[in-house]
Write a structure and sequence with these properties.
heterotrimer; A mainly beta (334); B alpha/beta (378); C mainly alpha (474); B: 378 residues; alpha/beta; Alkaline Phosphatase, subunit A; nine-stranded mixed sheet; three-stranded antiparallel sheet; C: mainly alpha
């Protein structure tokens, strides 16, 4: 089992396994952009695919052990359909909320994929949306919507009533430039992936700026268009550093702890696919002998989640899979 | 050689994406079929038996009627040596009959040239769908490519019939030949005049068509209806071609559901098509050929099947001698191609040879680039 | 602004790019012709398209296996790149250094090859030929990966000489012998492609060039009269020194940027349309040390390019029809759904981008036109030009309205022709269009109803203009 350990680090992570493969429907994902974790390790993967493969645009429902359950949603503008889906989140009643940045709306589904309702209107006024990106729900059932082209975060009730907003365009403290992902800390603080500013910003739940982490670059603690951010029970911050093809982990104060670049080994669905394509088993073996790392590594990790059990799940966008890690209880020496 | 009351006509339906032959004409008693298809194997009791060994996919009920009437030929193991697993390349090979080099001329383009060497009838070959499949491409052979027969023509974006007619009137005058302002401009004027003429003729096909048959509202259904309309209009069209939606048969995942829908659509449409022709006493001189660029892997991948080698093709028509032609390729692992594919046991050019010689009365070898032993199915 | 400045700038932007709106033509004409040429020649000094936004909104364009997504991504750049000449040059090389998806079967490799043309297409021709020979896609497409020391495959060796550099012949003589082809192929043995990951289950790795010294024939060879232990890069050095290579490039550039010429197989026997122009470009090739950008600079600033004789002396390629129409009407100027359908249009018009029919490429000039492709060209352009909701068409309506409170049918037709080009049409065409406009009389736009009718008639007239034979030229 691979681990990461860089001398100063007091936390390490072990790769567990991967979920998924490249597929337009059924047992795989296509350009997945976000996912939500439900009860019993059921995961809801939001596939963006593309307009010439509209069959790939839907939510895949499966488990973290690769039991395929179902899929729902399709390409289009009607109720229950998606054009450019960006994010998915589940509330405590197990309803799913899916943002669509072309239609500027949030669609609500039951956990079985039944369309329930939608809300959101286009614009830049209070409660109006221009390309909604990340979604997060706080413990008091407030919905935070990253309103990317309005350079702000808006707060709503779960049925779409406007509650408040914070952030404005710019690169100063508390200012945002096309923000994308959002994560909430155990104390309710709000972390926003300030995408085009190449940094993470921390706010209080009321929108007071707290801290800014990182700057443009590919060095330690630097980011290149970060898009996913989440916070674990210890307050550690995980950032999907999209264009740097890595995940960086920061302490609650923003100190760099560690990074992951991917440790993938074949998923069950991947093994199934190869079993029916024996010539590719050979091709793969030859390619791996030359370049063993290619298959392991993240390619544009795009969303990241943790759960209460110390598991970390990284959505490996271009490679159409999720890589799962666990946070070691004690640091493990490499 | 078959004789028909009117000139023989070939209709082609290309099943784009690579149809899974193994789940289309199923070796229903094979234990290996069950072994290799744990997820996608069709349950024994749902297969439609056609003889002691083979059966149809459950969605192919309507095609079974043609089988029972002896009007359906099934070509097993059809393909070519050294398979290409690329949609584009393999389709090009079927289109151009050039498995080794990259060919530019299509077999049906050459056939159309033989029918109409000086290109007098711009409707000798008609394709339904946007863009011309390479099968129909040959320099100097005009082939109309019709995206939508109901609205086909020039300046289709102009609202209002009278406005459009007026615009076409102006167009006709602007493109009137013999302006003498340079060879290229003159050429474009002639071409524009030809295009207008072809469109005007084609536009009459739906106007003069009535039928009790209702085709499904799918692309395959509507294009096959267009083929019937064009055939019934009597423009002298000899080759009518269409393609299922691009790569629709490319069932890498969720094949169970997808493949049923595809074959239900194709089978119903084929039945509608011949019902329509019979209703107009116009089936005698039509053969329908259905093919795909390759079959799929022997083994399913847990949800679908991936690109394979040889596949299944069909011919349907009143003059077709129904039956199974060729051998089912072995499913034995040691006999599979590249360890996972059905090896081709019949070259597609053998079938082309019969279509060209026995049905269309053309000399096959210059068209397909060589001599191939014909499959006698007429 | 002087009409002739606008007309000349429009000509430059059609040839060194994919056309422009009237606003852009006027803005560039104000900056000046030479300044605009310099800006076009130095893409790195201009902002590019915003790659991060493309990747955010169309993540599937990035490292896309599917060819359709690579074609969309390229069309988006043709429409939107401020570095217009860079895209036009990439298309130039794609139409000469043909490799196609039907064989390569990896959209990503086609995308990588086009990016190589962007990166190297205006520098040294020697570097470009070397990059081409290091391109894994090309090595595979032309079977160099199947060419071995012990078992030679001549395909790349032959096409490098025949179609990528010297050409078969010039001034009635032949430029190389069959022996030169064999030697060339021997020099490139060992230039190969490393095994890549298969497409399943997660997508393949990008192909990588690999030199295999054990498979390289390093024995002595005589190529075009020079003897040594040549390898591929030596061959490229020798090729670049040849007058035939200068002629080859000069004729291709003239044919692509200036005026339609006969197709390349005719070049050995058919002299150039403009011998002096070709001589000037050949001289620049050597004077600049094989620099493509220097040749383009001479070309765009020359009298033969600016001459009215070569305006509209080219049949537009389907890529030019599609990208040019979108630039004129102002659609898809940002990333939005719907580009897939549009990206298929060049294919319907006979130009399947990233998938040329053979290594010889597309037949251009009048051969773009047949009765099927003409219908596609006319309907595509006229649907767009008749759409009065498009920003570029709204602008044309406003500019026509600004010509006066009331327009005669003749002024109206002339105004429309001017604003879509200025497009040059024959008198007979103009008379037909004017006669058509006369049926509904003079045009005014004072009241809302008049304005609506004015707009409708403008859309209708633009549709008719898009349907003319003259509109097929660029």
């Amino acid at each position: 089992m691979s681990t990461h350990f860089f001398g100063l680090s007091d936390r390490t992570y072990s790769y567990s396994h991967s979920v998924g493969r490249s597929e337009f429907s059924g047992t795989g994902f296509r350009n997945p952009v976000d996912f939500a974790l439900g009860a019993d390790d059921v995961v809801y993967v939001l596939n963006r695919s593309y307009e010439n493969r509209p069959d790939g645009i839907h939510v895949t429902v499966c488990t973290l052990t690769e039991d395929y359950i179902s899929e729902f949603g399709s390409y289009g503008e009607a109720d229950g359909q998606f054009m450019w889906p960006t994010s998915i989140v589940m509330d405590k009643d197990e309803k799913l909320y899916i943002a669509d940045e072309w239609l500027n709306r949030i669609s609500v589904f039951s956990k079985d994929g039944e369309f329930l309702s939608k809300w959101g209107t286009s614009g830049s006024g209070d409660g109006e949306l221009d390309r909604p990106a990340g979604l997060a729900i706080s413990s008091d059932q407030t919905m935070f919507v990253v309103d990317s082209r309005n350079s702000r975060v808006q707060k709503f009730t779960l049925d779409g009533k406007f509650l408040g907003k914070f952030g404005s365009f710019g690169s100063g403290p508390g200012e945002l430039n096309m923000p994308w992902g959002i994560g909430l800390g155990p104390d309710g603080s709000v972390f926003v992936a300030d995408w085009r500013n190449d940094r993470i910003q921390q706010f209080t739940a009321d929108g007071q700026w707290q801290a800014t982490f990182g700057q443009s670059g590919d060095g330690v603690g630097q980011f290149n268009r970060p898009n996913g951010v989440c916070v674990d029970q210890d307050g550690d911050v995980y950032v999907a550093d999209w264009m740097n093809n890595r995940v960086q982990i920061l302490s609650p104060e923003g100190r760099f702890i560690n990074e992951m670049s991917g440790n993938h080994v074949l998923s069950q669905w991947g093994r199934d696919k190869l079993a029916s394509n024996p010539d590719m088993v050979r091709q793969r073996a030859i390619a791996m002998a030359q370049d063993p790392d290619f298959d392991k590594k993240f390619s544009h990790p795009c969303a990241i989640k943790t759960d209460g059990q110390g598991r970390i799940m990284v959505l490996d966008h271009t490679r159409n899979r999720i890589q799962l890690y666990t946070k070691d209880k004690e640091p493990v020496l490499a | 050689m078959v004789s028909t009351k009117k000139d023989p006509v070939l209709a082609v339906l290309s099943l784009s994406g690579g149809n899974d032959g193994l789940n289309t004409v199923i070796p229903r008693n094979s234990g290996l079929y069950r072994d290799f298809r744990p997820t996608l194997g069709i349950p024994e009791d749902q297969i439609i038996p056609i003889n002691d060994e083979l059966g149809f996919h459950p969605a192919m009920g309507p095609l079974k009627k043609f089988w029972d009437q002896g009007k359906l030929a099934i070509f097993l193991g059809i393909g070519y040596a050294t398979p290409s697993y690329s949609h584009f390349r393999s389709m090009d090979i079927w289109h151009t009959c050039e498995p080794e080099i990259i060919g530019t001329e299509g077999w049906l383009g050459r056939a159309i040239k033989d029918f109409d060497p000086s290109g007098e009838n711009v409707l000798t070959g008609v394709n339904f769908g946007r863009g011309l499949p390479r099968a129909l491409v040959k320099d100097g052979v005009p082939v109309a490519s019709v995206g939508n027969l109901e609205t086909y023509g020039l300046l289709t974006g102009i609202d209002g019939e009278s406005q459009r007619n007026e615009a076409l009137d102006v167009f006709g005058r602007m493109y009137s030949p013999a302006v003498g302002r340079g060879a290229v401009l003159d050429y474009i004027h002639r071409t524009g005049t030809d295009a207008l003429k072809g469109a005007d003729i084609l536009a009459t096909a739906p106007d003069n068509y009535t039928s009790t048959v209702e085709y499904s509202n799918t692309a395959v259904g509507q294009y096959m209806k267009n083929i019937a309309q064009t055939h019934l209009a009597g423009f002298g069209t000899r080759v009518l071609y269409t393609t299922s939606p691009y790569n629709s048969f490319d069932t890498h995942a969720n094949q169970g559901q997808l493949h049923s829908g595809l074959w239900s659509d194709v089978s119903n449409t084929v039945e509608n098509f011949f019902d329509d022709l019979h209703e107009h006493d116009a089936a005698d001189n039509v053969t329908l050929f259905m093919f795909t660029e390759f079959g799929r892997r022997v083994s399913d991948n847990g949800s679908g099947t991936d690109h394979g080698a040889s596949g299944i093709a069909f011919a349907v028509g009143d003059h077709v001698k129904g039956g199974v032609y060729g051998e089912y390729p072995s499913l034995e692992p040691t006999q599979q191609e590249d360890g996972g594919n059905l090896k081709s046991s019949m070259d597609f050019r053998q079938v082309y040879t019969s279509i060209l010689e026995d049905w269309l009365h053309l000399d096959a070898s210059p068209i397909i680039g060589g001599k191939f032993e014909p499959v006698k199915f007429f | 602004m002087a009409d002739q400045d606008v007309a000349l700038m429009a000509h430059l932007l059609r040839r060194a790019g994919f056309g422009a709106s009237r606003d852009e033509i006027e803005a560039k004409a104000t900056q000046g012709y030479d300044a605009t040429v310099q800006a076009l020649l130095h893409p790195d000094d201009q902002p590019g398209v915003e790659d991060d936004l493309i990747m955010r909104y169309q993540p599937s364009y990035h490292e896309a296996a599917a060819i359709e997504n690579n074609v969309q991504s390229w069309l988006y750049r043709m429409i939107n790149s401020p570095r217009q000449l860079q895209e036009k040059v990439a298309l130039f090389w794609h139409m000469i250094f043909c490799a196609g998806h039907s064989k390569i079967d990896s959209g990503q490799e086609m995308g990588i090859m086009i990016q190589m043309f962007r990166d190297h297409g205006m520098g040294s021709f020697r570097d470009l030929l070397l990059q081409l020979s290091l391109s894994p896609g090309m090595m595979y497409y032309l079977d160099n990966s199947e060419s071995h020391k012990a078992n030679l495959n001549e395909n790349y060796g032959r096409e490098l000489l025949e179609l990528f550099s010297l050409g078969v012949g010039m001034d009635e003589a032949f430029n190389y012998s069959e022996d030169d082809v064999k030697v060339c192929a021997r020099a490139f043995t060992g230039w190969n492609v490393a095994p890549a990951y298969p497409p399943f289950p997660y997508g393949r790795s990008p192909w990588e060039f690999r030199f295999d010294p054990a498979d390289h024939d390093d024995s002595e060879k005589t190529f075009l009269g020079e003897t040594g232990n040549w390898d591929g890069s030596d061959i490229i050095d020798i090729v670049c020194k040849q007058p035939a290579t200068a002629r080859f490039l000069a004729r291709h550039m003239y044919n692509y940027f200036v005026a339609d010429e006969p197709q390349i197989p005719a070049w050995r026997l058919t002299p150039p349309r403009d011998e002096a122009a070709i001589k000037m470009l050949e001289k620049t090739y050597f004077d600049s040390g094989y620099n493509i950008g220097a040749m383009l600079e001479v070309l765009f600033t020359s009298d033969f390019f600016k001459s009215e004789d070569v305006r509209y002396a080219k049949v537009k390629s389907p890529a030019e029809v599609v990208a040019g129409t979108l630039r004129l009407v102002g659609d898809h100027r940002e990333i939005m759904p719907g580009l897939f359908e549009i990206s298929q249009e060049p294919k319907y018009m006979g130009m399947d981008l990233m998938n040329p029919p053979t290594v010889e490429g597309w037949h251009t000039g009048r051969e773009w036109i047949d009765s099927g492709t003409l219908v596609e060209r006319i309907n595509f352009a006229s649907d767009y030009l008749g759409n009065t909701e498009m920003p570029g068409i709204k602008d044309i309506v406003n500019r026509l309205a600004a010509m006066g409170g009331s327009l005669t049918p003749a002024d109206f037709v002339d105004g429309c022709l001017d604003l879509v080009g200025p497009l040059l049409v024959g008198n007979d065409t103009r008379e037909e269009l004017t006669a058509h406009a006369q049926k509904s009389g003079e045009l005014s736009h004072g009241s809302d109803a008049e304005r609506a009718e004015f707009t409708r008639r403008t859309g209708e007239m633009l549709q008719m203009i898009a349907a003319t034979a003259e509109f097929q030229f660029g």
